[in-house]
Amino acid sequence: VKTAIGSGRSFLDRYTAICESIFQLARRHPLYFEGLIGNINVDIESESTPVIYKKIYALGEQLNSELEELINAGKEEGLIASNLPSSALLEYLWGGISGIIRMLLQKPGYLRIQNLNENQFADFCFERLLCGCRPQVNQEMKK
After folding, report:
1. What percent of the chain lies above the pLDDT cut of 90?
2. Whole-number average pLDDT of the chain
3. CA angle, corner 100, sides to 23 and 63, nearest 5?
4. Angle, nearest 10°, between helix axes 86-106 and 51-76?
5. Which listed site, 30, 104, 117, 130, has its alpha carbon 20 to 30 Å from 124?
6. What are phi and psi of 85, to 5 degrees?
7. For residue 30, what pLDDT band results from cuts at 50, 70 and 90?
8. pLDDT digits (tens, 9 = 90+) for 96-107
9. Total-model pTM
10. 92 near 133, Cβ under 8 Å?
11. Cα end-to-end span (Å), the chain
12. Residue 63: exposed, middle, or buried by beta-carbon count in 10 A (0-12, 13-18, 19+)?
């Protein structure tokens, strides 16, 4: 994810690379993926909280900050509605991406029955998720 964020490519290229890297991580390490999207049920400020939990939390916060910068780049490129808060967009995209990945991991047989290629369907879903952030969609919602 950090490599994709810092690649210097367009917002859309980086977004796509991030989605793909998270999907690959989830395929290779499903338990780690579930840990990433799960609840952090610890008091980060407490001295009794293990250092490893604090480090994991700090890394997550650093990634969130970098992802918000990426969202801001999408706003500058005109691909993301500039009036939507970046922190809300981050949570929306993270929830959508993780939900799509979870569904893909849990229903490979069903996708085959539907004659859907897993990778192509994932790309389709990730692209459509981003459509909810586009300026014209936001304007239509106001009407």
Report:
1. 45
2. 86
3. 55
4. 110
5. 30
6. -65, 130
7. confident
8. 999 999 999 999
9. 0.81
10. yes
11. 36
12. middle
